[in-house]
Amino acid sequence: MRSCFITLAVIATLATTAIGGTIEGKVSPGNSVVYVDTIPGKAFPAPTQNPLINQKGLMFNPRVLVVQVGTTVEFQNDDSVQHNVFWPSISGNKKLSHNLGTWPKGEKRPYKFDQAGVVPLLCNVHPEMSGYIIVSPTPYFALTDASGNYKIDNVPDGKYNIVAWHEGTRQTKSVDVAGTGKADFALSK
């Protein structure tokens, strides 16, 4: 009985330490992105799930998507008109521009994002359409709620640079994670 109790205690301790810490805080304005910047010497496997951005009602939905480097995003046209998806750069680097072309309703086109940064999405057919993909270098990221609250779970203990982004602006802060780390941001254009 005693050995069973000790075994359960060890398992519980290992499970608790394997989970990692939390980074939380608030970003003003809301509907922003927060992510842990590059961690030197760490590589992360690419996600296996492919998030979807719909083109519906002449809008990108979701308008802002955050993914990890190596993620394949699928773009689907759900409007009865043709749409085009392109980005003129990734974080200002015009060499990373890309055009997926134009396609009719019901079709889907994938693209794998291997470069971290901000991807401004546009449509050549409908210039009023815009959106963003934020490609995080780590799997530790969050999209804030409308009030600006965020929480990033399972972050290993350590000291990290945390980036907050909102359209047209970004800010970086250092945070120590030892159980729970906290970082608040006030972004302005």
Concise account of the structure shown:
The chain has one helix and 17 strands. It has one helix spanning 2-19, and strands spanning 21-28, 33-36, 52-56, 59-61, 64-68, 71-77, 83-87, 98-103, 108-113, 117-122, 130-136, 141-143, 149-155, 158-166, 169-177, 180-182, 185-186.
Structure description:
Strands 1, 13, 16 and 17 form a 4-stranded mixed β-sheet that branches. A 4-stranded antiparallel β-sheet has the order 12-2-14-15, with no helix packed on it. The chain starts with a helix and ends with a strand. It is built from 1 helix and 17 strands. It has one domain (21-186): Cupredoxins -  blue copper proteins (Immunoglobulin-like). By secondary structure, it is mainly β. The model is unreliable at 1-17 (pLDDT under 50). 10% of the residues lie in helices and 50% in strands.
Highest-level CATH class:
Mainly Beta
CATH architecture: Sandwich
Based on helices, strands and strand pairing, what is the structural class? mainly beta
Number of helices: 1
Helix content: under 10%
* Element order: H for helix, E for strand: HEEEEEEEEEEEEEEEEE
